[in-house]
Design a protein that fits this description.
27% helix, alpha/beta, two-stranded antiparallel ribbon, disordered N terminus, 4 helices, 145 residues
Length: 145
């Protein structure tokens, strides 16, 4: 499979929230040829990801690692993402959006890949309606480690 972008011009996507949905999205986006950074505030989780990578087990069986793993949104500035995918609990979104707004190069915008009614409104209030997208997801899964 050919990458969607050349190695020198890969689009960069940061996935914030590495639960079942965020992890699945990060793996598939990386397989599609995008350069991925994963970010989760749980330092134990990010340390495990740095050490062992991630593994999906069940209907989808995949194992991968990420070279860009962060435990704070502010640290994503080093990665310089074109797009941010947010996969958090709705109650965490307002504080996350304040940090995301400080990132300087989000050229495309923010995709809210999370449950909750009107979560995209919280994002659009911070970065603008034209740069906010909503992804509807039906997913059942659990983290085992």
């Amino acid at each position: 499979m050919k990458d969607v972008a050349s190695e020198n011009n890969k689009k960069k996507v940061a996935v914030i929230g590495i639960g079942p949905v965020g992890m699945t999205l990060a793996i598939h986006l990386q397989e599609a040829g995008l350069e991925i950074a994963v970010c989760d505030l749980d330092k134990m989780k990010t340390n495990l990801i740095k050490k062992d990578g991630v593994q999906l087990i069940g209907e989808i069986n995949k194992k991968t690692s990420f070279k860009n793993v962060f435990s704070s949104i502010a640290d994503l500035e080093k990665f310089n993402p074109d797009l941010v995918v947010v996969s958090l609990k709705t109650t965490h979104l307002p504080s996350a959006m304040k940090e995301i707004a400080k990132l300087s190069n989000i050229s495309f915008g923010v995709i809210c890949a999370m449950n909750g009614i009107d979560v995209e409104n919280m994002s659009s209030e911070v970065i603008g309606e034209s740069r906010t997208f909503r992804m509807v997801i039906n997913f059942a899964g659990n983290l085992t480690a």
